[in-house]
Amino acid sequence: MSNTNDVFDVEATSLQQDTHKPIHRGIPAGPRNALVVLIGEFCGTFMFLLLSFIGAQTAINNNDPKNTDPDAPLLPMSLLYIASAFGTALAANVWIFYRVSGGMFNPAVTLALVLVGAMKPLRALMVIPTQLAAAIAAAGVVNGILPGPLRVGNALGAGTQPVQGVFLEMFLTAQLVLTIYFLAVEKHRATFLAPIGVGVSVFIAHIAGTNYTGTSVNPVRSFGPAVIVGFPHYHWIYWIGPFLGTFLAFGVYSSMKFLDYSTANPGQDHDDIDRANKHMNAPVRAHATSLSSAHSRSTLVGSPSGRPRPGKDSHSSRDGVQGH
After folding, report:
1. How far apart are CA 93 and CA 42, in angstroms?
2. What is the mean pLDDT of residues 170-180?
3. Cβ atoms of residues 194 and 212 within 8 Å
4. Alpha-carbon span 46 to 167, nearest angstrom
5. How far apart are CA 109 and CA 177, in angstroms?
6. Where are the transmembrane segments (predicted)?
7. Is residue 292 situated within a structural domain?
8. Is residue 278 part of a domain?
9. Mean pLDDT, range 79-108, rounded to an integer
10. What is the arithmetic mean of pLDDT over 65-76?
């Protein structure tokens, strides 16, 4: 009877082990991880732009009922609504997918990671088409589920010239990429809050630039709606500007790393507390060392032979030796 029970126990254990074996067993880690990144980037980019486009479409449709000009500047409340939609949608989805794919959702950000060695170029070449496909899908879904024509495409406004638009997009994107470099790429005690900083950066960019360029800072954000409603003749500025911004931010970040910026204001993170303490206590140690050196020099000067003058302590020492 006990032998039968042992057989049943062995079979049950074997079945349990088979049940808990991962379904991806046998798939090499490289292709499997690449697939996970692509799925994560598609889902994250799609959800980020879907929610952002819905928010922007709502704000534009209700901008100013009395003004029928489609090119009229956005009112402050509409501008704030759009900035909030893009900023919060990005923050939420970066937070969701940061540990899955990196939460890039933007070819300019992908390039930024390649430049600092945080992503391999081959993987970037797979990620960017995925981001483009997700942007087209998001724009198409919004166009299909919301009434009226799609109105979320980027366009120059307020008399902005294409060259001006390039520089504006460059600086706005540089702000975003610097945020990613210092909050996400650099590991510190607040890294887990990086999605908030990234979202706030995009929020500020929309406040600053939407009435002038529509605020892209992300080529696929401009590309998706353009596929649905048509490309403006200056669509190129929404690629050149963000990529120039990436290189600008990379230059600033590389300079700070070359100069070892962490020594300029130490103690901001848990990993350099010791360095900060040494830095703060250096003047005290230097003062103590100078006092000790001065005391030693005065002692030597007071001795005719150049040796320390015998004092009470030295007599005590000799007495102690003689006592033995």
Report:
1. 11
2. 97
3. no
4. 27
5. 6
6. 34-54, 74-98, 124-146, 166-185, 192-213, 233-253
7. no
8. no
9. 95
10. 71
Residue 270 carries which DSSP code? Answer: G
Tell me, yes or no, whether 115 lies in a domain. yes
Among candidate residues 8, 218, 11, 6, the one with its CA nearest the CA of residue 103: 218
Query: Residue 32's pLDDT is what?
Result: 85
Structural domain contains residue 276:
no
Q: Give the chain's domain count.
A: 1
Residue 290: the pLDDT is 66
Cα-only R_g, the chain: 32
- Distance in angstroms (rounded) separating the CA atoms of residues 69 and 72: 5
> 3-class DSSP state for residue 269?
coil
Per the CB < 8 A criterion, the answer to whether 110 and 104 are in contact is: yes
Evaluate if residue 185 carries a pLDDT over 80: yes
- DSSP symbol at 243: H
**Could you tell me the pTM of the whole model?**
0.75
In 3D, which of 100, 106, 67, 52 has the Cα closest to residue 214? 52
CATH number at residue 85: 1.20.1080.10
| Confidence (pLDDT) at 192 | 87
The pLDDT assigned to 271 comes to 55
Q: Does residue 96 surpass a pLDDT of 70?
A: yes
Range of the domain at 37: 30-63+71-263
Q: CA angle at residue 54 from 49 to 59, to 5 degrees?
A: 125
